[in-house]
Every structure is written in C-alpha cells, then in structure tokens.
Amino acid sequence: MRIGSHCCLWGQETLVRAGHSVLVEAEAGAPSGATDSEYREAGAAIVSSPQEVYAGAEMIVKVKEPLEPEYGLLNPGQIVFCYFHFAASRELTSAIQESGVTAIAYETVQLPNGQLPLLVPMSEVAGRMAVQEGAKYLESPQGGRGILLAGVPGVSPADVVVLGGGVVGSNAARIAAGIGASVFVLDIDLPRLRYLADVMPANVTTLMSNTYNLNKLVSGADLLIGAVLKPGAKAPNLVSRKMVSEMKEGAVIVDVSVDQGGCVETCKPTTHTNPTYVVDGVSHYCVANIPGAVPRTSTFALTNATLPYVVKIANSGWQGASHVNPELAAGVNIAEGRITHAGVAEAWDLPLAGLQELTSH
C-alpha cells in the first residue's frame, strides 16, 4: 500500500520493511527533529506538496483531521487515519462524508476493557501541559492572579480543580500535585475515584462530580482544567457561563476537551498563536491541539501507539483489518460516505450504518 505518513523515522522504516511505499511531504519531519535525508535513508519518498501526498497515497496517516483546504484533495476510497473528533464539527463530518473516504479515528479505537489506546499518549501530553500552561497564565504579566502553583513556606499553594479523572485528568492532577498545588479531582465514576485516591499524593482530594461540588469548587479555583471525555461524542457542558462569572478575577481555565466541544460553556477553540481570551475576568486557554506545542515528544509518543494499527490496515485494508480487529472496527467513524459510529450519528442526528455489512464482503 502507498501511505502518506506522519510517523517518526523508525515508523517509516517499519512500514517500508513490511513492503509498503511511504510518501512524506518535504520538511514535514522538521518539527520533530527529522530531516528529509533521514526519511530518504529510512526508505520514504519525499514529495514537494500536500497535493502530491494526497494524490499518490491510498492511506493518509496524520495527527489532526484534514483542514478545509485539504477537503478537495481527498479521494474516494482513500483511507484517512488520524484524530477526527467529528462530534465537534458538523462541517468536517459533511466534508468527509461527501469525499467518499473511510475515516478511522484514533480517538475511538477502543480495547475490550474500554481503554482508548490511541488517545492515551496525546491525553498524557495534554494533561501534563494543561498544568504547565495554566501555571504560566496565572502569572501577573499574562493577566493572571499572580499566584505560584506551589506556594512557598508561609503562603498557601494554588487551588487546582480537575474535571474528569481519566487519562488527561489523572496526568494533570499528578503534575499539579507534584509541583505542590492543592488539587481536587471530580468524576462520576466512584471506582475510578477510589483508584485515584489510592495512587495520588496526599495533596490530591477526590470528589464526586455533582452540582453542589462543582459550584463550590469552580468558584474557588485558581486553575480549572476541563478533562471530560465521552468517546466519539460531544463533551458534556459542566461549567456554565454563570459559574465562570463567579470565579476569581485572574483565574485560569484550560479546557482540554475543547476538541470535543468543550465542557465549559464559555469555551471556544483557540490556537498556539493566539491561545487565550478573557471572559468575565477569567483567562481561557482552549487550544484544540495542545500536544502540537511539543511535536518531538508528541510524534514519538503517538507513533509508539498508532504504528501497529497502521501496519494492520496497510497489510489487510480497512475492511479486512476491521473484520478481525474489534478495537480497530470501533475506530471506523465514516466509511465511504456512511456514518458508522453511534456517537457521530447522535451528535448530528444522522442515520447510522452497520459496520458489519460493510466489512463482511
């Protein structure tokens, strides 16, 4: 199979050794520290533009979803394997349907135990960076309250509230606690809270996520981190505009779930170039691709997780690979124009097609 791939150098070598052709856009590896010559040595072919990658590849492997300028480059029958987050964008959903490609979403590949193996590495990065960015924007020159997360002897540390105790939330809590903040983690999963209470440091408090606890903790937070996830579906709105208005002047919100619509009502996607905005005196950091700020770490971490699935799809095609790998079948969101993931269909009130009938022939 001809693959247009983002994978790091050892990933390219693996695909080439498996008998596949790999196309890489010129200088695509620069942010992660790889040169075109190194990609050539790994067996990849370097092409000069995205147009050439899309025109020459049967499967596109990338990090984020195709952007609007790329919609016209997609080809019917092509496989696109990346993060999509369809429930956050009706425009993207329609564009992919109309293109005739098969969209396999990293974020919904799911193991029998419920784990999301391709979401984990970026969730780990995003959760850790949420604290890093939140600490920066709490500084007075950035418009924040002028609070050090750790405090110092004789001065209280910051109060960090984490909504969600999954991979993002637990990584955010661990980093914030390690710095020395006073951390509160809210979740609706009591067994998960018990687990976190066992493994987290003493400065982490676990609480059931309910209206009372949300109102109390959000209003007192110096840093609020949104880390809520419903796989493949829109994130539930937990923090209202009114709750934001009752937060401290100069407090910071980092809504990691913005790529699924956000769990804070005042959340809207931002970029690394313009990462923040202020609502009711509260700074909002809502970058939809937080790991993109650390591309070297993110590329290696993502390749570690995605490459085995890329090889399976390349070896057997999406239908064959999905037929024998239930976890990969869960990742197929749109197949040749038909929506095959319940979360996407529900988000936009669209008909749902059975994947089995598409993979059984």
Characterise the protein shown here.
With 361 residues, the chain is an alpha/beta fold. The protein folds into two domains: 2-109 and 295-359, NAD(P)-binding Rossmann-like Domain (Rossmann fold, 3-Layer(aba) Sandwich), CATH 3.40.50; 120-293, NAD(P)-binding Rossmann-like Domain (Rossmann fold), CATH 3.40.50.720. Helix content is 37%, strand content 17%. It contains 13 helices and 15 strands. The longest helix is centred in the last third of the chain and has 30 residues, at 295-324. It is globular and about 65 Å long.
The counted number of beta strands is 15
Tell me the strand percentage band. Answer: 15-25%
Do you know the CATH architecture of the largest domain?
Answer: 3-Layer(aba) Sandwich
In N-to-C order, the SSE pattern is: EHEHEHEEHEHEHEHEHEHEEEHHEEHH
Shape summary: globular
The CATH topology of the largest domain is given as Rossmann fold
Number of helices: 13
Q: What composes the largest sheet?
A: 8 strands, mixed
Helical content, roughly? 25-40%
How many domains is the backbone divided into?
A: 2
Radius of gyration: 21 Å
Strand order of the largest sheet: 3-2-1-4-5-6-14-15
CATH class of the largest domain: Alpha Beta
Derived structural class? alpha/beta
Beginning-to-end CA distance, first to last residue? 20 Å
Q: CATH superfamily assignment of the largest domain? A: NAD(P)-binding Rossmann-like Domain
Which runs of at least 5 residues are low in confidence (pLDDT < 50)? none
Mean pLDDT: 93
